[in-house]
Design brief:
Order of helices and strands: HEEEHEEEHEHEHHHEEEEEHHEEE
Number of helices: 9
CATH architecture: 4-Layer Sandwich
Number of domains: 1
CATH class: Alpha Beta
Distance between the termini: 45 Å
Number of strands: 16
Largest sheet: 7 strands, mixed
Helix content: 25-40%
């Protein structure tokens, strides 16, 4: 017999008439107060023989999107957010460093915000501990570029070194840009000027442990750096290769994919050279599509992994399925 809404209601009425109870639909008091916080954020997976761990450093919600996309109006931005079932007029940006365990080396790629950032960020240390990774065991920290959410986690609130790795590898081109007095003097007041000051603050603490790397060379076992400039003049992405496994680490080629993967011709307010960032983005995603590569994105929704597909003149990110085994 076909089950209909009418038959269900009639059955319920009959149960009540004969003294039955519908306790399953009766509200009951909560057994405990709500936790009010998430579980630790980390996700492990394999690339060849390497074990990788994506680690959440937290997030920050931009409360006004005025000017966030420099070459699109807010109506178009809100339409893109709604298409992704996200709230209008705000954007939550997530920060996702990663740890690569090669079997002989433990490598951290980008260090998150640390203490000098939003209160909702700076969770790297706690989430590394939850993942069973001792920050003191990190052999090398590889930095993609010198924006605050990528380097501030190197330095503690007391201006001491927070991650005591053997060394910090930073892109030579980006270090040259941020440490150039002429570039700093020409930076307009506001975000860019603050970024110059912040880069120098961090470098003042860790400079003795910094090694500058060049593009198209290994920066650590199995990790090769390549130029993806535009977001910053020395912005760098990585290929992680082990056996037949391969991962593209896009760093900040895009900010949130709902905006900048779907609309690769948009430029974020954080892009120092918007047109160059757009050109780089298309080249990167054309490569990723052609190779069917797995991509890790620093600002992708957690666990910050997916594959890209071409969609006309745009792209679509297909997030990975969460795998309970490694």
């Amino acid at each position: 017999m076909e089950t209909t809404r009418r038959s269900v209601l009639m059955g319920a009425a009959a149960a009540l008439a004969t003294g039955g109870q519908l306790s399953s639909i009766s509200p009951s008091p909560a057994a405990a107060p709500p936790a009010g916080k998430q579980a630790p954020g980390f996700y492990r997976y394999k690339v060849g023989d390497y074990e990788l761990t994506q680690i959440v450093d937290g997030s920050f919600t931009v409360q006004s999107l005025d000017g966030f996309v420099t070459n699109a109006d807010k109506a178009a931005v809100n339409a893109a957010l709604e298409a992704a079932y996200m709230p209008r007029d705000q954007l939550t940006i997530i920060f996702n460093p990663m740890v690569v365990n090669t079997g002989s080396k433990l490598i951290l790629i980008d260090s998150g915000y640390g203490a000098a950032g939003p209160k909702t960020a700076g969770q790297l240390q706690a989430n590394m501990a939850a993942a069973g990774i001792d920050p003191k065991a990190i052999d090398i920290v590889v930095i993609s570029h010198l924006h605050p959410d990528h380097i501030n986690g190197l330095v503690g609130a007391d201006a001491g070194i927070l991650i005591s790795a053997l060394g910090n590898a930073m892109p030579a081109q980006d270090v040259a840009y941020w440490m150039d007095d002429g570039n700093m003097s020409r930076a307009p007041a506001g975000r860019l000027a603050d970024y110059f000051k912040n880069a120098r603050r961090v470098m003042g603490v860790v400079s003795s442990k910094v090694t500058k790397y060049e593009w198209d060379k290994e920066v650590a076992p199995g990790i090769t750096a390549f130029a993806t400039v535009g977001h910053t003049p020395g912005h760098t992405s990585f290929v992680i290769a082990s056996g037949s496994g391969r991962l593209l680490v896009q760093s900040d080629v895009t900010n949130h994919p709902a905006l900048f993967v779907r609309n690769p011709g948009w430029s974020a307010v954080f892009d120092i050279d918007g047109p160059k960032a757009i050109e780089t983005r298309r080249k990167f995603y054309d490569m990723a599509v052609a190779e069917k590569s797995l991509i890790a994105g620093f600002h992708y929704p957690f666990p910050s992994l997916g594959h890209a597909e071409k969609d006309g003149t745009s792209y679509r990110l297909v997030p990975i399925a969460w795998n309970p085994s490694i």
